[in-house]
């Protein structure tokens, strides 16, 4: 094998290794993604949806290494109240300073700080534990949750559930931690975020 051919092969190997180690950004496809919220109270529950602005996952060698998700708080909707009037009142209340104060804090941001691959089990199909900082109303707190992440062709797909304590972000309205004798007016502190996110992988 002559020197030129050797250089070509070595160059090819180096280029291949560099490409495999290159960090990629997988940008969220809003049309193929869905985020729902579920909040409960003594007398029942409410649920709805919310959307993201430009968001992405960082990947390296087909593994999650980071990412940032920008939530558009103005996009919050309700799905269970049929009356247009009462639906509007509920959504307006969620946007008020009793809850998310959307006028002053129009976005929430989740930043992945650590991603641990894990082995799925019969009981739990998730293959990642994600850690990060969630900022709501300008207040940042660390959170962690499990997710199921898969890669197919030029896309990444992630599903999971996050349980949050709203009082950590100064959302105290009708919380039993701060108000007594609420009776059936009590709203539970924990609420759930379910996500089903598809993103496109680009260099």
Describe the overall structure:
- With 203 residues, this protein is mainly beta.
- The chain has a single domain (23-202), classed as Lipid/polyisoprenoid-binding, YceI-like (Lipocalin), CATH 2.40.128.110.
- The protein is 15% helix and 49% strand.
- It has 2 helices and 10 strands, in the order αβββββαβββββ.
- Strands 1, 2, 3, 4, 5, 6, 7, 8, 9 and 10 form a 10-stranded antiparallel beta sheet that branches.
- Strand 7 (128-136) and strand 8 (139-152) form a beta hairpin.
- The longest helix has 18 residues, at 3-20.
What's a quick, concise take on this entry?
It contains two helices and ten strands, in the order αβββββαβββββ.
How many individual β-strands?
10
Low-confidence stretches: 1-21
Oligomer: single chain
The CATH architecture category equals: Beta Barrel
**Fraction in beta strands:** over 45%
Major sheet characteristics: 10 strands, antiparallel
Query: What is the fourth-level CATH superfamily?
Result: Lipid/polyisoprenoid-binding, YceI-like
Shape: globular
Rg, Å, rounded: 21 Å
What is the average per-residue confidence, as pLDDT, rounded to a whole number?
A: 89
Structural class by sheet pairing and helices: mainly beta
Distance between the termini: 34 Å
Provide the helix percentage. 10-25%
Domain tally: 1
Order of helices and strands: HEEEEEHEEEEE
Individual helix count: 2
Output the CATH topology.
Lipocalin
């Amino acid at each position: 094998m002559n020197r030129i051919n050797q250089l070509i092969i070595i160059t090819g190997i180096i280029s291949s290794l560099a490409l495999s180690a290159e960090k990629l950004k997988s940008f969220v496809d809003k049309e193929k993604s869905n985020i729902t919220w579920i909040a409960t109270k003594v007398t029942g529950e409410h649920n709805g949806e919310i959307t993201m602005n430009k968001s992405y996952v960082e990947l390296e060698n087909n593994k999650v290494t980071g990412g940032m998700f920008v939530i558009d708080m103005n996009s919050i909707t309700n799905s269970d109240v049929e009356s247009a009037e009462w639906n509007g009142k509920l959504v307006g209340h969620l946007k008020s300073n009793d809850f998310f104060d959307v006028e002053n804090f129009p976005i929430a941001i989740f930043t992945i700080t650590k991603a641990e691959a894990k082995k799925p089990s019969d009981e739990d199909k998730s293959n990642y534990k994600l850690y990060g900082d969630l900022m709501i109303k300008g207040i940042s707190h660390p959170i962690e949750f499990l997710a199921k992440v898969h890669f197919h062709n030029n896309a990444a797909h992630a599903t999971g559930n996050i349980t949050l304590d709203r009082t950590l972000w100064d959302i105290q309205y009708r919380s039993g931690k701060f108000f007594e004798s609420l009776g059936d007016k009590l709203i539970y502190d924990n609420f759930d975020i379910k996500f089903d996110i598809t993103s496109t992988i680009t260099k």
